[in-house]
Amino acid sequence: MTERPADLDTAARLSVAPMMDWTDRHCRVFHRKMSRHALLYTEMITAPALVRGGARHLIAFDDSEHPVALQLGGSDPRELAEAAKIGAEEGYDQIDLNCGCPSDRVQSGTFGAVLMRHSDLVADCAAEMIHAQGREVTVKCRIGVDEQEPEAVLPDFLQKISAAGVRRVTIHARKAWLQGLSPKENRDVPPLDYPLVHRMKAAFPDLHISINGGIDSLDAASAHLDALDGVMIGRAAYQRPADILLDADRRIFGDDAPRPTAEDVALEMIPYAEAHIVTGGRLHQVTRHMLGLFTGRPGARHWRRILSEGANRPGADGRLVEEALSAVTREVA
Questions:
Q1: Which domains occur in the chain, in start order?
Q2: Is 302 among the annotated ligand-binding positions?
Q3: Which of 18, 97, 229, 308 is the most buried (most CB within 10 A)?
Q4: Which positions are annotated as active-site residues?
Q5: Is 54 one of the annotated binding-site residues?
């Protein structure tokens, strides 16, 4: 059985959800500059891409991202075990198994939310992943899918994966409807059932349980932390990163060290972006994640416009970020 490191327990008090096409390595570096403690996740990477496709470049990351988790998608225990081993070799702090994504692509591959119908298989996958390497293996799931009754399905699911050695789980407090709703609709349409997730903590006190879904402020996160071990925030952390992350270390982790400002973060991203450009990258690949940095503040529109219009142009570099930041400063003045 894998022993759970105390620092990961603490980091998981607040985590930024794995989000396809959003939480890439540039996004995670950006988020880390706002919070020293929050647990960050990769986008979901499929086990076949790593094991059969040899796509290790998909899981490259910067040392500054720690603590950082690799989320894997798949349903073949041996393949997931090999992918978990690769993730551990690359230096990830934890390996997560996706049992919550409702997209058509993951359904056709028999992974993601459809695995809520196959709890025995999930337990087998988790056991193989744990046995293959030394990092903690966690699971992110839904409360159920389609016509399943969450009150019956979720406890059975949690019992089986915990028996397999999983000690930390994140529960998206919505069902996933695999037919009739798009992935986007599955993030909003099915009703949230926070009380069910809270009851699962009471039923499984030894499980470290984080809640996900519809949580869009530190006030809301703090309320859940009265009863649960962790909160995972997705779109709000991406679209309004300063609101969620700049004060997270103080409010969620009790760290009274001086917090950076949004302006500090923008300036700190310039050398990172410049280093990426030197290796052949584009400024846009970094700055697209920074557009929401000043949301709700004077100058936010100018910041977004300058970066959106200019970052894809040939030769765009850190000077564009300085220009956008100057526009924010002028607006405030």
A1: 6-251 (3.20.20.70), 262-332 (1.20.120.1460)
A2: no
A3: 97
A4: 101
A5: no
